[in-house]
Amino acid sequence: MRKILKDRRSQGSRPVGWSGAYPALVFAVIFVFIFLLHIPLLRLPYFWDEAGYYVAAARDLLLTGSLIPHSTVTNAHPPLVLAWIALWWKVVGYVPLVTRTAMLVIAAFALLGVFRLAERVANTEVGVASTLCTALYPVFFAQSSLAQVDLAAAGFIFWGLSSYVDGEEVATLFWFALAALAKETAILAPLALAGWEAAGLVARNSSLRNLWLFNFNDEHDDGKPQRFRPTRRIASLLLPALPLALWYAYHYARTGYVLGNPEFFRYNVAATLNPTRFFLALAMRIWQVVGYLHLWVLTLAMAVAMWMLPPQQDSGVARSRISFPVQVVFYIVLLTFIVAMALIGGAVLARYMLPVVPLVIILSVSTLWRRLSFWRAAVAFVALIFVAAWFWNPPYGFSPEDNLAYRDYVTMHEDGERFLEARYPMARVLTAWPASDELSRPWLGYITRPMRVVRIEDFSMDEILSAADFRSSQHDLNYEAALIFSTKYEPGPASWDHWKSWTKLKTRFFGFHCDLPAAAVAQILSGHIVFSEQRRGQWVAVIEMEKSEVQAAEVRMQK
Fold it and tell me: How far apart are CA 312 and CA 530, in angstroms?
């Protein structure tokens, strides 16, 4: 049976499996490599969703032992990664350096899973190259040290796929269960494979049976038929949903809600079930797995090599490909995530596709290894292109958390908020989330003591006009300063920005809005800019409010 699986994973011979022989050594090399790359980022304060949910929820777990956060609204994400972070804080201490190191341990383990999977389905050379490209891919690199859950879920999925390809049912169940407890959407991978296995039972006597990795008529090593093996495989893919179901039952018992709070469900599920939005999001998801942030360089090279070049030969024998049944496994998981993540999820974030982008990288690198004599140079070029994308912002909108643009955001907010704290320590500050949390929660790392805030949704025209009206009518809650910033990356005007229909669609389905420039906000709020900073399409500014005649009179009376 082992020989059959080996032949189906990769056609031809394979080198010794390093991930199986020296797993600790491979993990150590990977961890040291990515740790050194992330050293300049390890002391940064927490960014966006880190500050808004994950760090707050992990801190609640550390201080109270509660799996349900109370300092932020629960969204029902399983608590595995939060518990991991809280454990590190308990043992080492609560500082960003500890948090980011803990996440790098998870990232190194995920990369070890990529290496193990690529090595199993191809060979060690493809495993090393695929792991390098994955580690340097901008989205994976940026997420590696951020306190979020998507990369952890992706890592457990890679380990689950590797165990599934090896035919190890217990290990498959274990890794996929951990993946689902890292993030609920990870359950898509084993459920998709369970459906594929069930379809294989139906097709086992047809001419299509060779599409499946496991032949349902395979025999044990002793020659006896495996009558119960398909059932065991399907069970190993369905049972990982049980721990997730138990978590949801616990969450419902404690909060009265299964999938987070009503607003979370509306934003991520109810509001996304629209055919027009689905097809728009589907196009975005496809782009994120084949072309986003220079990924197109690798996939285009794969396509050209596959269609134009014959396989290379070693000692007169053509280099082997990843077997088609294994490729089908990859495609099943890939397609499932693309469709599901287009159907649900209010924000079409690239990090949600981390479980499948490395599968595309493995397939692409394997094709280059098979068909290019200079495949190492090609992979090195792709790696350099990925590194360039850490610093280069594309000419289209993207999330700052997908490359080092998030560092620019954090640094500018540090500067602006420390200026606020030094110059207006007792002021009430008008701002939007997540800066409202950054100013009111010193433990996020931006300021040393909490400041009072007046929160608005964003810095669009409607919100700023409402804030101006509020200030003129609510003297007891007036704000003395405003911290305004770009709430999204602004690449500058493009040809498609002039299409009114496209703008309406983005506004309706993806929460698009235009932030007013700092000078315009200052004019509307009757203030003047006292601090401003701008970096590569992002900006932040502090506005000091001019006192009204009534306020000036009150100050004179107090004196």
Answer: 64
Residue type, 42: L
Q: Which residues are 137's β-sheet partners? A: none
Token reading at 296: 């197109």
**Which of 406, 517, 518, 381 lies closest to 38, judged by CA?**
406
DSSP string, 412-444: HHHHHHHHHHHH-TT-EEEEETTHHHHHH-GGG
Q: Where are the domains of the chain?
A: 2-392, 404-558
DSSP-assigned letters across all residues of 82-112: HHHHHHHHHHT-SSHHHHHHHHHHHHHHHHH
* Alpha carbons 270 and 345: distance in angstroms, whole number: 10
Question: Strand pairing partners for 219?
Answer: 225
Q: 111-131 as b/e, with b when 16 or more CB fall inside 10 Å?
A: bbbbbbbbbbbbbbbbbbbbb
Strand 527-535 and strand 538-545: the pairing is antiparallel
3-state secondary structure 123-190: CHHHHHHHHHHHHHCHHHHHHCCCCCCHHHHHHHHHHHHHHHHCCCHHHHHHHHHHHHHHCHHHHHHH
Contact predicate 117/223, CB 8 Å: no
Burial of 50 (0-12, 13-18, 19+ CB in 10 A): buried
**513 token code pair:** 């809005």
CA distances from 255 to 47, 53, 262, 282, 487 (A): 27, 17, 11, 33, 31
Question: What's the Cα-to-Cα distance from 399 to each of 2, 96, 203, 427, rounded to whole Å?
Answer: 45, 21, 43, 31
Cα–Cα distance between 379 and 393 in angstroms, integer? 22
Multiple choice CATH, 404-558, 2.60.120, 3.40.50, 2.40.128, 1.10.10: 3.40.50
Per-residue confidence in pLDDT tens, the chain, 559 aa: 444 455 555 544 444 577 777 889 999 999 999 999 999 999 999 999 999 999 999 999 999 999 999 999 998 999 999 999 999 999 999 999 999 999 999 999 999 999 999 999 999 999 999 999 999 999 999 999 999 999 999 999 999 999 999 999 999 999 999 999 999 999 999 999 999 999 988 888 787 888 888 765 544 544 544 545 788 899 999 999 999 999 999 999 999 998 878 888 888 887 788 899 999 999 999 999 999 999 999 999 999 999 999 999 988 899 999 999 999 999 999 999 999 999 998 889 999 999 999 999 999 999 999 999 999 999 999 999 999 999 999 988 899 999 999 999 999 999 999 999 999 999 999 999 999 999 999 999 999 999 999 999 999 999 999 888 876 665 556 889 999 999 988 776 666 566 777 778 877 888 778 889 999 999 999 999 999 999 988 999 999 998 654 344 344 444 4
Q: What is the DSSP string of 205-228?
A: TSTTGGGSSS-TT-B-TTS-B-SS
Instruction: Give me the helices (H) in 441-492, please.
Output: 461-473
Mapping DSSP to helix (H, G, I), strand (E, B) and coil, where does residue 352 land?
Answer: helix
Angle between helical axes of 324-343 and 357-371 (0-180°, round to 10): 150
